[in-house]
Amino acid sequence: MTRNFWEQWLHIWCWVAIGFGVVFSAAGVPALDGGAGAFYRLVSLGSLSAGDFDAPGMRLSVALVGAVMLGWGLCLLAVFRACGADPALWRGLGWGVIGWWAVDSALSVLNGVPVNAVTNTVLLVAYLVPAVKLGFFNRETVSRSLA
């Protein structure tokens, strides 16, 4: 597959992060929490749903996580639009993606929601595939790394 294909994959990945951010941010409004509720129901194998957002602080926490993910996705999209798929820059950003995956997945498992770690791993792999194909982690670009 061509470099353009992998760059477009990375571009779509940014939009997926934005989409997740929108879905989780919407949970801050009871009438709009269906998407986040469905996600929680899925990853908790039915033990959590949008009704659990009514617990003190839960709705706010989910909405704030969504806002952070939305901001993260918008920042990554802005970087992509400004710099394209520059290997040194995206390698540094990749360490951020890996850091998110490690912390979020470990906390998911520790809190009894291992399926969320699986969905995190799908997102991580969806980032790493174009990252490897675009040379973000090869020896030549590592020596020029900003990270």
Can you characterise this structure?
The model has no long low-confidence stretch (mean pLDDT 91). The chain has one domain. It is mainly alpha-helical and 147 residues long. The protein has 6 helices and no strands. Helix 1 packs antiparallel against helix 5. The chain has helices spanning 3-26, 34-43, 58-83, 87-110, 114-133, 139-142. 73% of the residues lie in helices and 0% in strands.
Descriptive key words:
147 residues, 73% helix
What does the overall shape look like?
elongated
* Secondary structure: number of strands: 0
Could you say which structural class the secondary elements and strand pairing correspond to? mainly alpha
Sheet having the most strands: none
Number of helices: 6
Share of helix, binned: over 70%
Rg measurement, Å: 17 Å
Number of folding domains? 1
Strand content: under 5%
Written as H for each helix and E for each strand, in order along the chain, the element string is HHHHHH
Low-confidence stretches: none
Average pLDDT rating: 91
What is the CA-CA span between the terminal residues?
27 Å
